[in-house]
Amino acid sequence: MNFFHLPFTPNTRILTENTLNQYSEIRKPKRGYFPIKIRKISFSNELLVIGVILDKEPEELVYIKVTTSKLLVSCSVDTHENYLSRYAYFSLNQLMYYHTEYDFEDYYWPGFFDQETGVSKYLMIHKSKDSLYVSSKVRYKGLYKPGKQLPNISANIIELRKAVPSIQEQPPSETHIVLSFCLADTNNERYRTNHYPFLIPCIGILNKGKTGVRSFKTYVLNEMHLSEIDLTDEQQSLVEICFDMKKIALVANPEYKEDAHSLAEKRKQNQYNFNQLFELWQKALPLLSGRLYTHYSYTYGMRNVKSKPIRSYMTPCEVNNETPEICFLWKDKGDYYKLELRLMLLGKIHPLQYYFNTAFFAMLSYSPRKYVLLNSVVDSELLTYFQQSQFQLLVLKKHYDGDFKDFVDQLRMGYRFIDK
Prior knowledge:
By secondary structure, the protein is an alpha+beta fold. It has six helices and 22 strands.
């Protein structure tokens, strides 16, 4: 089978409409209706088969193979290494539909098939009407694909932070008005006013037994909101840190068709703010750990952090004063290796909760509202990366040498490894 080669956007499996048009002079008619119907028929031995019907013509087949840096395309008519047929062109164009690109990552599974049977023991391939869905089986969650971006690990070993003393806070004796602190969190990729996790003070009213906050009066957005509370020196210092956090917590989002230079500047500023926020959390920890009225709130964006907190969104939580140590379990599973990220706390190894990613914090699976502040920004980036695949990475032994081995070697230099 002869294939026509189309390059992806670097370090991705994304084909853009612009690239497609650079390699073909075929275009949709500017006038009139030109119906195109495609259906994904099968995926076997890394080959995606698509059926395409142009107008009233009979169906032809298009064959697609996804490699690390290029899309290989062939079809049942015309296409060869120097020419892309109209059937192949319109199939790719239709995959993009109203968008200007298509990500073929879901069909990039090099070396995961049995070449004789065309079947993969690692993958689930689900056919649904005219579409087709490919994913790893549950037990193989986190399979590494050659060429996939891996986190950069600093060569500098960061010393573990010493455990800080906890505040011994007592309920107020003469009032039910209390200063509470809230860990404001959201998904920093989903909402227009998304933000990194920051701490914000709130004015709350305690229940009768003063064991918890019954209702909230307001977020503390400036000093004027604190007029009815006498602050201790520790509270005053913590409030000032909170104000500094909020100033830099908002994430700068890309605009529609923004140029590459502006995007790079935003990424640089976001990373700077992220690093500064992490330093502020380190300063806040000895002033926050041990407080009685600490809450977590998933804000759905900074636009919702105004006036009065919504009680149903405020969940009591605890910020731990201990220093967590990231460690890894390394297992030989026969035809692949399994790398699992775990947390060592007070000499014990703990699994992590993976439903939420709270950037600077780790949450133990059996105690998801106990937050443990991580030791470094590198730890935070590692946790975010591993959280996407439930804190495990699997690599086939034939894919181990090269990038993945280098990654594991870097991890072994900076973190504790436990071979199972």
